[in-house]
Every structure is written in C-alpha cells, then in structure tokens.
Amino acid sequence: MTALNGYVTVGHGPRKVIALSGWFGSSADWQTIAPMLDVDAFTYAFFDYRGYGASLERDGAFTFAEAASDVLALADHLDWPRFSLVGHSMGGMAMQRVLLAAPERIERMAGISAVPACGSRMDEARLAGFSATINDVSKRAAIIAFSTGNRLTPRWSTHLANESMRLSRREAFAGYLPEWATRDFSAELAGSAAAQVPVKLFIGEHDPTLTADLMNRTWLTWYEHATLETLANAGHYAMYEIPVALATKLEDWLKQTT
Q1: What is the C-alpha separation between 86 and 220, in angstroms, rounded?
Q2: Hey, is 57 helix, strand or coil?
Q3: Which residues contact 18 (CB under 8 A, 6 or more apart)?
Q4: Which of 81, 10, 73 lies closest to 250 in space, CA to CA?
Q5: 128 CB contacts (<8 Å, ≥6 apart)?
Q6: What's the CA gap between 103 and 109, in Å, rounded?
Q7: What is the spatial distance between Cα 243 and Cα 248, in angstroms, rounded to a whole number?
C-alpha cells in the first residue's frame, strides 16, 4: 500500500477541495476558517507536505514535483477523480505543479497571496536572508510581521513563527525554500491545457510582496480565465487576519460552475 501524506478533512459535501499551505504554515493554518466553511456543499482535505504537520516524520526530497505526486496520491485514496485546489503563499506555486501533472483533474484554483509559477526570483542576498530563518525563530517572526504590513501585534507574529518551528522539520523547511524562491516553470504553462483552468487570486491590501502588479504580470498573463481580488484589512495571512471574509469569498468562487 502506498504511504500517504498526512491531511485533515472537513465537511461531507459533493464539491471536493485540496488546500496547500505556505512555507511557514501547515494544515493547521486552515483551522482558522474551518468553522465558517459550508460542510454540506464541500469536502476539504487540508494537505501537509512531507516534513510538515501531520507529515512531520515523512522523509522525502522536499520538492514541488514530489508534493504534486503526493497530492494526486491523496486524491486517488479519497476517490476524487476531479477536485479544486487552494494554495496559500508557496502553496500557490505547489498547486500549479499539481495542475501541470494532471490538468484534466482540476476543476478550478484559488490562490491566497499565491507565489506565481516563476517563483519569487530571489537574488543571492535575499535568498540568504530567508535562509537565515531556518534556525532562527526571531527572523521568522520578523518576516511574518513584514509580510502583514508591520501593523499587527508582535505576539501574533512570534506565535506563528513558533508554530512554524514546531510543525516543520528544518531539512524540509530548507528544502522547500529554493523551490519557491528560485525555480521557474512558467514556460510550461504557455499554450497548455493547464492554462485554461479557472483561477481566482486573492491578495491582501497590506501584503508588500504579493501585489496586484505582480499578479497582473504573472498569473493573469499566463491563465486565460484568471481574476484578481484585493482583500481589505489583510496582509499575507488572510486566513488569520480576516477568516470570515476569506471563507465567504473563497466558497463563493469555488461554488461557481463557469
């Protein structure tokens, strides 16, 4: 029997959704919106990458190609021939690897402050700054605070950073960094069936990096049926900052059929 990544399910409805978290996150991130979700209309599977959360002890190469294979194995296990994808931050890039691996299985995608298929295109100096967070919780907290506009209580940034340390293995955290920071597979989207999948992008008005300008130059250029919405009173972590509004907008999108 094929080993599976850990996951958490919510709901029992006919619409199937697999959600992928960000670099600092895990399946626990989605529990902030779980009480607001329509459990009669949807079944959600909140997925954990190898080395994260419920998959903390699972070894691997810690790549998005591997994660895509693991997501599809989970969908097979759940007997979901078709499903939608939700990705937060690096999860936006990871879900596109799932899409490219099996475009015929994906109904629609929603990205929340989602990294595009070209990655973050980090130079050496910026990559070194992010690498310094691997063993330093205070540097993780500083990036979380910056990504939400330095406008929220530092206690929350510190809490999220501590949870990131607790719910990810150092080698996994380090392994996924170049996957979203320096990789670029955007050329694979050109003229592909994947580029026809409907996409909705949500960005926070206070997110300094995943901006409308970036989305327009990347996602909205590559996907024929992509739309963008800016979320008021949110930065990079909308599921924590505005959970009720995010759950509402997300399901309004996922319920659409055209």
Answers
A1: 17
A2: coil
A3: 44, 45, 47, 71, 74, 75, 80, 83, 84, 85, 86, 98
A4: 10
A5: none
A6: 11
A7: 9
pLDDT confidence bin for 257, thresholds 50/70/90: confident
State if pTM tops 0.90: yes
Domain that includes residue 104, residue range: 7-254
Decide: residue 139, CB within 10 A, 0-12 exposed, 13-18 middle, 19+ buried: middle
CB atoms within 10 A of CB 155: 9
For residue 100, what is the DSSP state? H
CATH number at residue 25: 3.40.50.1820
Kindly state whether residue 2 falls inside one of the protein's structural domains. Answer: no
CB 167 within 8 A of CB 26: yes
Domain count along the chain: 1
User: Above 60 in pLDDT, residue 1?
Assistant: no
Does residue 116 sit within a domain? Answer: yes
> Residue type for 9, please?
T
Does residue 1 belong to any structural domain of this protein? no
CA distances for 133 relative to 97, 118, 140, 147, 210, angstroms: 25, 22, 5, 14, 20
Domain-embedded: residue 203? yes
Tokens 């310094």 label which residue?
132
* Whether the Cβ atoms of residue 62 and residue 29 lie closer than 8 Å to each other: no
Tens-place pLDDT, residues 66-116:
999 999 999 999 999 999 999 999 999 999 999 999 999 999 999 999 999
205 vs 197: CA distance, rounded Å? 25
**What are the C-alpha distances in Å from 79 to residues 72, 82, 90, 174?**
10, 9, 26, 32
